[in-house]
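RESIDUES AND SHAPES:
===
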Amino acid sequence: MQEIMNNQAICGEYDCRSILRNADPIKMRTKGASAVTGDSNGCSLERSNCTIDNPLYPQDGVESDCIDCSNQIAESQLDLFNSSGLSTNILYVAQAYGINEFIISALISKLTNVGEDLDAGGFVPCSSPDGCYGVMRVPIEQFNKSGDPTVDGPYSEAAIIAGVELLFAAAECVCQNTIMSMRRTVEDIIMISKSAARNAIFFIIFSR
């Protein structure tokens, strides 16, 4: 077991920094679109049934209307993902970081409506005093660590990488706050990665 977990050729290093490599959307529960997201995308959803899934307080019921709305949104955004080379850039970054491309795509959909919320310069308002930039709504100060964010453009690999770095930082925080006795088996790692992915999405959306 330990040999497998330490073999980077198989699965990479099982540490808190790389925990999201194990997040598989196919195995993660979804409640579909929340009522708030549905309202902004033409769906009429019951607010008591379609709520964002807080990983600290799991809910039991899954409403088909919420799932249907989520599918409707995904279908309506296909052309946006295929424009500006975005889908190609997402795949490149996903492979480079060993993270599922659909997690990145879902974040881009939620954070900037696949770039539709960006202004002509690629910026979007947020709590950062200098604003946020790119399809992953990254605060300008994060980009300033590596140079001018506008050089490569809001749909670029660089813009996506900046968002993934924030995602990894949030997941690392969740993992580090999980006691060591619950980080010993492959099953433990998978459960942490699920929680890390959900909490990371909350972190990126609500910390702006």
About this structure: The chain has two domains: 2-30+77-206, 31-76. The longest strand covers residues 123-124. DSSP finds nine helices and three strands in the chain. Confidence is low (pLDDT under 50) at residues 1-13, 54-59.
